[in-house]
């Protein structure tokens, strides 16, 4: 039980770190497409408090926990199948839902590509980490 919990935490931390890199690299188009108001330095007005990051980590923890459960029940134990299953979850479960929300919100397609791309890669990375232990 302890190993599985640490594995889920490691998968979450890896995906969270990937998100930091991903969204720093794509911050300008992402902010433009979300409509977030920025200050004179190009940063979101008011900034993002720690609560946002804590909540984001918890939400990713839920995803990693469910992925671990799916992997255990499906017998996914190799790195290749872990990555493939993770990419599949991101690309075929999470990204379409992001696209659906953005479609009804009349958001730009580029936003869906940015957010869906991250979801796909992050789930693939979670799958890799989950398969390592």
Average pLDDT figure: 95
Uncertain stretches of 5 or more adjacent residues: none
Topology as a string of helices (H) and strands (E):
HHHHH
* Helix content bin: over 70%
The number of distinct structural domains comes to 1
Number of strands: 0
The biggest beta sheet reads:
none
Based on secondary structure, the structural category is mainly alpha
Total helical elements: 5
| Radius of gyration (Å) | 16 Å
* Shape, per Cα inertia axes: globular
Strand % is under 5%
In whole angstroms, the N-to-C terminal distance is 12 Å
Describe this structure in words.
The chain is mainly α and 133 residues long. It has one domain (2-37, 47-132). It is built from 5 helices and no strands. It has helices at residues 2-25, 27-34, 50-74, 79-104, 109-132. Helix 1 (2-25) packs across helix 3 (50-74), helix 1 (2-25) packs antiparallel against helix 5 (109-132) and helix 3 crosses helix 5 (109-132). The chain is globular.
